[in-house]
Specification:
Blueprint (H helix, E strand, L loop, with lengths): L3 E11 L25 E10 L6 E8 L5 H14 L4 E5 L8 H9 L3 E5 L10 H12 L7 H16 L2 H9 L8
Parallel strand pairs: 1-4, 4-5
Antiparallel strand pairs: 1-2, 2-3
Helix pairs in contact: 3-4, 3-5
Length: 180
């Protein structure tokens, strides 16, 4: 019997948005006005691949503050509630992914196995594609409040979650060897 693979990562979205190149009529340079505030939204997500059908799923949680170990543990609980059978999580070597609370959680959940990507290798994690696609979709936007930013992020993540082709693109554009 196979195991679900789940690629996990965290990211932050600042109220001061990302600006990227865009189209405009000749001579009319577009202007994006922004309020310079430090509000942000933090998101943890997991891109899962099922063992039998090889379907790809996206799970996420949004937080108003930086994600710490308790939020990671809660996300792992949520992931285990949704995925049946064994689950292998692949993630980076972040400090919030290690320590006694993580080891205790593993002892309580024997169907979960945690594996780390090599250090400084974000290009191997397909979940980085989730952040790339979401941040590109939000580029040149102008939310005025943290709540608007949260709504935009949730909306874009939900659009991504509904598209098998976009989720598969996250896997195919990573530097992992082809397996789907």
């Amino acid at each position: 019997m196979g195991a679900h693979l789940a690629f996990l990562d965290e990211s932050g979205f600042m109220l001061k948005g990302t600006v990227c190149r865009t189209w405009a009529p000749r001579g009319l340079t577009p202007t994006v006005r922004q309020k310079y505030r430090h509000d942000k939204v933090s998101v943890i997500s997991g891109l899962s691949v099922s063992p039998k059908r090889h379907s790809v799923g996206l799970y996420y949680q949004v937080h108003e503050k930086n994600i710490q170990r308790p939020e990671v543990l809660e996300f792992l609980r949520q992931l285990l509630r949704h995925l049946r059978g064994y689950v292998v999580v692949l993630w980076d070597n972040g400090g919030i992914h290690k320590g006694d609370p993580i080891r205790a959680f593993l002892k309580q959940h024997p169907r979960l196995r945690l594996e780390h990507f090599p250090g400084y290798a974000p290009e191997l994690n397909p979940d980085e594609g989730v952040w790339d696609q979401t941040k590109k979709a939000l580029a040149n936007g102008r939310p005025d409040t943290a709540e608007e930013l949260r709504s935009f992020v949730l909306e874009e993540l939900e659009v991504l979650r509904q598209s098998q082709s976009h989720l598969r693109a996250c896997i195919h554009t990573s530097d992992l060897p082809a397996f789907l």
